[in-house]
Amino acid sequence: MAQTQDYDLGPNTFPRGWFMVADAASVTSMPRAERFFGQDLVLYRGQSGTAYMVDAYCPHMGTHLAKNTTSYVIQDKIHVEGDSIRCPYHAWRFGPDGRCDQIPYFNGPIPAAARIKSWTVVERYGAIFAWHDAEGGEPDFDLPTLPEWDDPSYVRWIFDELGVLPCHQKEIVDNIADVAHLGPTHGGPCEYFHNEIDGVVARQKQGAPHRSLAPGQMLETDTWYTGPGVLVSYFNDGDSVMFITHTPVEDGSVRAWHGLLWRSPNAVATPQDAETARLYQAGSLAALAQDFEIWANKRACVSPLVVPGDGAFGKVRIWYQQFFHPRALAGEFQAKANGFHAVRGMPPHNQRVA
Ligand code: FES
Ligand SMILES: [Fe+2]
Question: What ligand has the least distance to the C-alpha of 179?
Answer without folding.
Answer: 2
